[in-house]
Amino acid sequence: MFDMLAYIDPGTGSMLFSLFVGLATTAVFAGRALIIKLKMLISAGKVIEAKDRTAFVIYSDHKRYWNVFKPVCDEFEKRGVDLLYLTQSPDDPALNAKYDHIKAEFIGEGNKGLVRLNMLKADIVLATTPGLDVLQWKRSRDVKWYVHVPHHAGDLSDYRMFGLVNYDAILATGKNQEIFLRKIEKIRDEKPKEVVIAGCLYFDPIKERIEHTEKQKNEKLNVLVAPSWGKSSLLSLYGKKLIDALAATGFDIVIRPHPQSLTAEKELLDSLQNTYKDKSNVSWNFDNDNFDSLNNADIMISDFSGVIFDYTLLFNRPVLYTRPQNIDIAPYDAAWIDDEMWTLRVLPKIGLELDETQFANIKDVILNTIQNPVSKNGIDEVRSECWEEIGRSAQNVVDYLINKENELLGKKEEMTEPHENA
Question: What is the rounded distance in angstroms from the CA atom of residue 360 to the CA atom of residue 335?
């Protein structure tokens, strides 16, 4: 749920940077305006298009979102349409991908990359990163349209407050996200955005991969511990107490922390890894691709992490989850909504709650959960709410981007027909 904080934190040392970038950007655009005026005078008033402008740009703030953007890149490549991919990870897989029409570029980490984005010249930018025009990441005056695509199928109310307010369009995965967006727009009296249910870019390739991959045959039961991060997450609340109980079961215990824990909770992770370094049945997984860890697991133990939806909706396997305690929702868009957050509301439909009092008997709890999982009807219901257009997300996203660019340029006659439902 609150693992959206893996994105740029708009409150960390950003005021001074924003002031600097604002002044620099103003100077740059003033200079560009002067140059354009001079060119128009020289060319008798004819408009001269900027040569360094590009139609479509993807911005990725971290390499872990390659699994979201790769299907889009593949679809652009398939159609022979040029795309610029800007990443802030020097080891982003996109940089080594073999494409003819996709140009990938490392723009620098932190503020260096943001300066490039704030002065970008493009028709449309597609990104998973919330916080546009909040503090550090500014809307460029030379970008016509910003599109947000969620990197998961869960709740959007766990974004930092106003994280999506400055996007022009949202390509939602399902009705759950569209309902939230319309509700918060009404509450805050915001101008309605374009919201299109396009499907889940992250889910579709995994579904196809599952269909062509056999589950590993485990000698011992494989238990995957995959929490979110922060004060209400499983490792922060229960840490050693839970791992001690799991290690005593004799099952293979694989702990896969949230990527943000590597920086935000490094001290906690270092301590736990050191504590269990001699436990042969306790291992840690930090792979960028989580497919193998999910595919090999017989059961997952989590909290409110979005990975629960990956595991239940795609792999159809049982989940135990812990409820968050004393969550401070004040910094999040959830603070505007009186209703219980969608993620917390649907957890009982896709998993079974694990209470701290059950840790002493956790082996039996795990075995009983595997033998008596939640109703398939509940999982199907949640899937229908959050994951529509199954198998068609990449085509839908690229159709939208191309049609929108034609609309922005006044070329409606060139707009593509949406792909028919399979």
Answer: 36
